[in-house]
Amino acid sequence: MRNWGREVLASVLVNSIYEMKNYPVVLLNTVLSPLSFLIVITFVSKGQLIGEAIEGGFIMSMFQSGMSLQGDLSHLKNDFKLQDMVVSSPTTPSAYVTGMALGEIIYSIPALAVLTILAAIYIHPGAIQSLELLGVFLLMFLGSVAMGFTLSTFSSDIVQSFAFSRLISTVFATLPPVYYPITYIPLPFRYAAYLSPTTFAGEIAQSSTGLTQLSTTDILSSWTILIAVSLALLLVAVKKARWRDV
Known about the structure:
mainly alpha
């Protein structure tokens, strides 16, 4: 257990601490991406959707953090051959990926801190509501980490990895109704939004804090789908990721 913890810490140091220390400008992107959408939605809605925008910022931050793993792992694997060294060492894939994923969360701490303060001011979530929100955000993060890790093991070029990472983040964290209620989407197009798991995350978050009203059946269905998708992505990562065949 002690060795596993050291392996995780080493991955965290490689993926975030050293880079943040040497290039603090990298933190700007993690802060600006979710907050820029929050500001736009708040201004356009004249403040009426600030609660939804804050929760959308959390969902986007967590999803982007997981997907950023694809670019970072691909860079270390292809440019520095780090994964080859990890594969030939006693380090387990779980320790390596866990440490790298925690490193992505550390990158997002400034944005998450700002969003937490805004949530305390404008949403006032209670203890149970905070746990529900935390569960939603963690599921988003776990699912995107699994997706990012799987894609990174198949990627052969850092440019390709960043392109896919940005594309997937846009499709799943920007276009779906996470910054606003799904009722704002015209009905003929509303069904397409449910193709994204982030839609269910947004509905659960908005419903848990009273920003929208969902029936008990709809809430349970959203939780079931979100959990099932996250577990499916984790299963794909375990079964299909090319850990030793790179």
